[in-house]
Specification:
It is a single chain. By secondary structure, this protein is of the alpha/beta class. The chain has one domain: NAD(P)-binding Rossmann-like Domain (Rossmann fold). It is 45% helix and 15% strand. Strands 3-2-1-4-5-6-7 form a seven-stranded parallel beta sheet, sandwiched between helices. Helix 1 links the parallel strand 1 and strand 2. Helix 3 packs parallel to helix 4 and helix 4 runs parallel beside helix 5. It is globular and about 55 Å long.
Amino acid sequence: MSGRLAGKTAFVTAAGQGIGHASALAMAREGAKVIATDVNPKLVDAMKGVPNVDARVLDVLDDGAVRAMLGGLPPLDVMFNCAGYVHHGTVLECTPKDWDFSFNLNVRSMYVAIQAALPKMLDHHKATGRWVSIVNMASVAGSIKGIPNRFVYGASKAAVVGLTKAVAADFVQKGIRCNCIAPGTVDTPSLGERIGAFADPVEARKMFVARQQMGRLAKAEEIAPVVVFLASDESAFATGNCYSVDGGMTI
């Protein structure tokens, strides 16, 4: 199959819906063989049969399962760590449990996955000369911009930027590129659930839209092309960067 990612093997977490799903499908359309994982079996079943997609159930909080799956896969050309959680609240409303869960899902899961896959990635580069691209899900909330009621989410996503730059710096001469993306507010099922939790969901949606300079929310399909770009050889000279796709939130 032709395409910008033809011949590449990609691994994606949280691929059942939202940005992960749109990105997995976009990479598959560009010719990559995509191992698309999600914790939700129903979402995984819905992806089965999609061309170039190998859909599998995976809980990224299960270190053993992550290491076992990645250990059994062929060497990866692309890894997109997309799994995450948005906690709502200030530092006063963040419990130790909230803190631990947010950092475990938003940051530690990336550390475990990268650590598990990296030895094969390094060997893959040595054997073929092909560079490997790791893409991590950060956010405009965090090191880029402070967002109200996003205390632990912002802290964890700032950590993702630091993790990304550290991996990029350590392996820039060994065939590994590592970048992250920082979306603004994206209209995903996850956002829909958070909006639905407000006392007045209609007003809540208006609030989310109001903070976007473009006057609308992003679609997941508008974020996926940036993931494809970072996965492809078109971004061959890019590493250690955080790409904002935020509808003008940081203007």
